[in-house]
Write a sequence for this structure.
């Protein structure tokens, strides 16, 4: 999850937040607040953990370890019956918190390596482009993509190594994590020399990632917020429609029929077709749900129309009116609502 100062920065014009490779949240100070945390927990964390447990065929029982930050509500343990929350003791975050045992350091080394790599590639492609020019064009969308790519680079061994303080029996190799951070930093310094950057500046940059923002940094961020165009309309979020899903399945079936017509091996085609349709089962279920909702809506509308009283009431003759020659009474027809 990424928390930014502006909800609709200029660089994201015309881009749906749902299409970003991060969970996008915003507030003026770019902080994780109580509301942001609760939204993440209920709308992202729980569902993700349930899907993971299902894919591994294990019970949906999760232990969530949190520090005592203000944005972590005291009653979070009551949010979901399958999630047990445990808080770290005060003033021990940097010592035993799993994410502090190499993962943050690795990620923060990967990110500047990607940024400097982007700059090196851009300046080599365009000899007139200076590093300063590149940095002026670097925006939050570039940062989001580099953040996502850097996180994807974090290895499983690094994720395993985070438990070395709390659950050392689960850790396989800690030295690999430490060597990984060292090699990445050396790689960043080597690329920096190619761009005539001072090695001291690069190492200072890497070391500063764990520091709190200074007053000058906060002032600069405030100026940046003012420049952002927060009045940009948010793009319409993507959603499934019955017509769109049906069209998608029609195209899939058309494609499969092409393969069936040209494949001499029917056993191979049948295996492929089954695999494709099995993979699309989740979309098929969504389509069936939408069909059922549409059917129920049409049925309710039909009954409402059938039960609606006539607009103009039938006139009742007065006592002084001439007698009417009325036909013999007949049994009334059952109304639509009487049918089972």
């Amino acid at each position: 999850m990424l928390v930014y100062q502006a909800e609709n920065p200029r660089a994201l014009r015309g881009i749906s937040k749902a299409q970003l490779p991060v969970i996008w949240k915003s507030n003026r100070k770019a902080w994780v607040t109580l509301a942001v945390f609760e939204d993440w927990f209920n709308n992202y964390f729980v569902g993700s953990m349930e899907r993971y447990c299902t894919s591994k065929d294990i019970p949906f029982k999760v232990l969530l370890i949190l520090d005592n930050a203000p944005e972590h509500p005291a009653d979070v343990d009551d949010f979901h019956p399958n999630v047990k929350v445990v808080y770290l003791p005060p003033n021990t975050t940097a010592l035993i918190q799993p994410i502090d045992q190499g993962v943050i350091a690795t990620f923060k080394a990967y990110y500047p390596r990607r940024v400097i790599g982007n700059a090196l590639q851009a300046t080599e492609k365009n000899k007139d482009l200076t590093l300063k020019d590149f940095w002026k064009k670097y925006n939050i969308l570039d940062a989001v993509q580099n953040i996502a790519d850097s996180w994807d680079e974090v290895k499983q061994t690094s994720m395993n190594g985070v438990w070395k303080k709390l659950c050392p029996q689960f850790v396989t190799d800690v030295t690999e994590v430490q060597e990984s951070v060292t090699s990445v930093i050396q790689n960043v310094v080597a690329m920096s020399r190619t761009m005539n950057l001072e090695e001291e500046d690069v190492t200072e940059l890497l070391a500063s990632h764990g520091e709190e923002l200074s007053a000058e940094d906060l002032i600069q961020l405030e100026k940046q917020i003012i420049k952002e165009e927060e009045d940009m309309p948010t793009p319409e979020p993507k959603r499934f429609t019955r017509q769109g899903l049906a069209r998608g399945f029609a195209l899939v079936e058309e494609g499969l029929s092409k393969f069936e017509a040209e494949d001499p091996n029917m056993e191979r085609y049948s295996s492929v077709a089954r695999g494709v349709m099995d993979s699309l089962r989740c979309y098929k279920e969504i389509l069936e749900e939408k069909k059922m909702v549409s059917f129920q809506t049409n049925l309710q509308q039909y009954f409402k129309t059938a039960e609606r009283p006539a607009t103009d009431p039938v006139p009742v003759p007065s006592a002084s009116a001439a007698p009417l020659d009325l036909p013999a009474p007949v049994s009334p027809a059952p109304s639509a609502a009487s049918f089972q």
In short: The CA atoms of residues 10 and 229 lie 6 Å apart. Residues 2-31+88-227 form one domain. Residues 281-307 form the longest helix (27 residues).
